Predict the 3D structure of the following.
Amino acid sequence: MKVIALARITNPEVAKILVTTSFETLDPTARQQGLMSGANSVMLNVTPYKYKKSYTIYPRRAHIHEDLQKQISETLELLMNLGRAPTEFGD
């Protein structure tokens, strides 16, 4: 979180700082902590469910059993609770 905050401070205008699912695998509150520390992007696990078991990068990956719509809903709710709004959904 300190590195995220430092990245935001050193380059506030253009830094695109991502909270990845690996952070969330280590700590379920990492998405919120990262956004509060200066991150401005989050990663969702968009691998189609039928392929998720074949695409295991590391054990106990966050959101492996959640569908994309649930992740989107939870992310939007988190942003609203933090007083923020989504500005883009990626390409």
Notes: The mean pLDDT is 85.
